[in-house]
Amino acid sequence: MEENNQKGRVFFEYNGKKYIYDYNILTLEQLELAKELTLFKYHQSKVNPDNFDMVIKSQGAYFTAIMLSFLLREYKDNKPLEFNYDKSEFETLIFVKNLPASELPKCEEVLTDFFTKSGLGKVGSALLSRNTKLGSMEIISQLMLKNMITQMNKKD
Predict the structure, then answer these.
(1) Gap between the Cα atoms of 18 and 11, Å rounded
(2) Residues near 88 by beta carbon (within 8 Å), at least 6 away in sequence
(3) CA distance 118 to 71
(4) pLDDT for 58
(5) What range does the domain containing 80 cover?
């Protein structure tokens, strides 16, 4: 059995550092941070930004990396180290941002597992699918808003 699939664990190794994801060892702090970030990103995805710079400033473009920095724990001497929020914001985040693109399937595996086990399956699925299709009500609302703005501008 591959090391990555032992007992629901996923390992990441890069540049001499090793990290582990295992839902069963998440602390309450990790769980809450990841849940809140998921809900924040979900609500953020419902609002169209005015420009890409807004996405960057809000950290929206780094959702996967930030999520993983909350969910991973450094792994040394065959055991996970304690979670440290300050370390997750810097060291772990840098580690994740520098992972090669070939690690993306494992990253998505971790996120899917977290979303499923934490009860955020539908929200997580919507975020992972990066679904840009708008529902019919959203399209109608946007068209009506644009039409109202156009009509108001014509009156001026």
Answers:
(1) 7
(2) 69, 70, 72
(3) 12
(4) 60
(5) 3-155
pTM exceeding 0.85: no
DSSP-H helix ranges across 88-135: 93-97, 104-117, 121-129
Using one digit for the tens of pLDDT, what is the confidence trace for 12-65?
999 999 999 999 999 999 999 999 988 888 777 777 767 677 666 665 667 889
Q: Domains in the chain: how many in total? A: 1
Helix (H) or strand (E) holding 42: helix 28-45
Taking CA atoms, 121 is separated from 35, 52, 111, 113, 125, in Å, by 11, 27, 10, 9, 6
Give every strand in the sheet of 79-80, ordered side by side. Answer: 10-14, 17-21, 73-76, 79-80
In one-letter notation, the amino acid at residue 101 is A
Residue at 145: amino acid letter: L
**What residues contact residue 145 under an 8 Å CB cut-off, 6+ apart?**
none
Tokens of 37: 């970030």
Classify the phi-psi angles of 78: left when phi > 0, otherwise alpha if psi is within -120 to 50, otherwise beta: left
